[in-house]
Write a structure and sequence with these properties.
30% strand, five-stranded mixed beta sheet, globular, Sulfite Oxidase, Chain A, domain 2
Length: 236
């Protein structure tokens, strides 16, 4: 099924908002109980961040630079060729073109970026689409518990729905006021501010809803399934 966001206009937006609120109600309790929200003994330093954890997680060093980490391949995807497939355990799978993505509600947000290789970049301004809105668009089945994200570079990573549906999880096309560069995953990447950054796929091309947890690229190689920075949860 191909998305047709432009032709449906306000009616589609109303349905997305309604579906978003339904998802929020369904996962609100689980989201509120995740470690980055309620951990009584988070490990880190600095004043509380936006969700109550120490600003700098344990083992992290703050940097103003943005190091480049990838699998050795940085795909170049022209916007007129770019597509995002969202499928799996959903009622309305979609194939989004770039213009479809840009017709969805666009969000400006500021959050922190924590890399498992021990550096953190704070207060990064982003522009993109909330994952929750994309989930609302496809209407996950009641059996869905996790997602697997796939990149154009062959990368994959798994995220539980209670983490993915948090409001600061975005698919971003803009960072620091500029279009997301190819080296950092442009034209579109996912960000997961309450998890280590490997949970956010660069050059994202597909999101598959799953009925159970499955291992992604780094998870198969010994990285943590859960990836909570304030528990130093780097490796399994």
């Amino acid at each position: 099924m191909e998305a047709n966001t432009q032709s449906e206009g306000p009616d589609k937006l109303d349905r997305i908002v309604e579906a978003r609120m339904k998802l929020k109600r369904r996962f609100e309790e689980k989201m509120a109980q995740t470690p980055s929200m309620v951990d009584e003994k988070p490990r880190g330093s600095g004043p509380p961040n936006r969700h109550g954890m120490p600003t700098v997680p344990v083992g992290q060093t703050v940097t103003t630079k943005w190091p480049v980490l990838d699998l050795g391949y940085q795909p170049s995807i022209p916007l007129d060729k770019w597509q995002l497939h969202i499928d799996g355990e959903v009622n309305h799978p979609v194939r989004l073109k770039w213009e479809d993505l840009m017709a969805l509600p666009q969000v400006e947000d500021t959050s922190d970026f924590h890399c498992v290789t021990t550096w953190s970049r704070l207060n990064v301004p982003w522009v993109g689409v909330r994952f929750m809105d994309l989930a609302a668009l496809v209407d996950p089945k009641g059996s869905a518990t996790h997602i697997m994200c796939y990149g154009y570079d062959g990368y994959s990573t798994n995220v539980s729905l209670e983490e993915a549906l948090k409001p600061d999880v975005l698919l971003v096309h803009t960072a620091d006021g500029e279009p997301l560069t190819r080296e950092h995953g442009g034209p579109l990447r996912m960000i997961t501010p309450q998890l280590y950054a490997w949970k956010g796929s660069k050059w994202i091309k597909r999101i598959e809803f799953l009925t159970k947890n499955q291992l992604g690229f780094w998870e198969e190689r010994g990285y943590s399934n859960t990836a909570y920075p304030w528990r130093n949860d780097r490796y399994s």
